[in-house]
């Protein structure tokens, strides 16, 4: 499948959002170097696409820790579709601690990075957008946006994070990573369509709904 990356925008965010109760972990994240001693301290989430209670807590062998798994998010547009169904988002907050002298960063597409799968079903008057924002408290953020114009139907695979932006880095010792995925539909009065970003729950078609494979560990 082909997709068009229409904009890569660096944004400054000031986030003050209510969160769900976190899930705690005491296990070292196995993908990090042993010297980094990286731990996932907690995860919390909010958003119209992941209301409280929609995620579930389970062990992830690739991380060697318990974490939250998420359903997909979706949006639709049509003559009788309410305005609030034209967009949906899920924002996840991760508290990650590292050893003194280490930090984590988000890196763009590479051999160990991530892809996401989304499904679109758009008529000729509809446009679907997928936006992913990566933010580390105390640092800048990076937003990647993909736009799809109808008529178009089927599963699409995109790089996420994508090459290009200057992705944020944490302070030494770790920090709080915020990942926000949003799908949105737009068009005139005759526009009809739907869009879904798969989650990592169940069959896990998007095992990197949270970009674990895009975390880089650096000395500082």
From TrEMBL:
InterPro entries cross-referenced by the UniProt entry: DUF4360
Domain of life: Eukaryota
Assigned keywords, A-Z: Signal
Keyword Ion transport: no
Endpoints of the signal sequence: 1-20
UniProt entry tagged with the keyword DNA-binding: no
Pfam families: DUF4360 (PF14273)
Protein's recorded name: Secreted protein
Lineage: Eukaryota, Fungi, Dikarya, Ascomycota, Pezizomycotina
């Amino acid at each position: 499948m082909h997709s068009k990356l229409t904009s890569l925008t660096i944004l400054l965010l000031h986030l003050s959002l209510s969160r769900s109760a976190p899930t705690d972990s005491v296990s070292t994240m196995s993908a990090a170097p042993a010297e980094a001693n990286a731990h996932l301290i907690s995860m919390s989430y909010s958003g119209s696409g992941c209301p409280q209670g929609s995620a579930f807590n389970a062990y992830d062998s690739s991380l060697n820790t318990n974490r939250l798994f998420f359903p997909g998010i979706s949006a639709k547009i049509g003559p009788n579709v309410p305005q609030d169904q034209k967009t949906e988002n899920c924002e996840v907050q991760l508290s990650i601690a590292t050893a003194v002298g280490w930090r984590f960063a988000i890196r763009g597409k590479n051999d160990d990075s991530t892809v996401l799968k989304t499904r679109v079903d758009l008529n000729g008057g509809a446009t679907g957008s997928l936006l992913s924002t990566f933010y580390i408290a105390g640092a800048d953020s990076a937003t990647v946006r993909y736009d799809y114009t109808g008529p178009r139907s089927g599963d699409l695979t995109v790089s996420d994070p994508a090459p290009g932006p200057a992705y944020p880095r944490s302070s030494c010792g770790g920090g709080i990573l915020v990942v926000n995925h949003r799908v949105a539909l737009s068009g005139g009065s005759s526009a009809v369509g739907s869009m879904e970003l798969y989650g990592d729950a169940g069959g896990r078609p998007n095992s990197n709904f949270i970009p674990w494979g895009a975390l880089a560990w650096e000395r500082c």
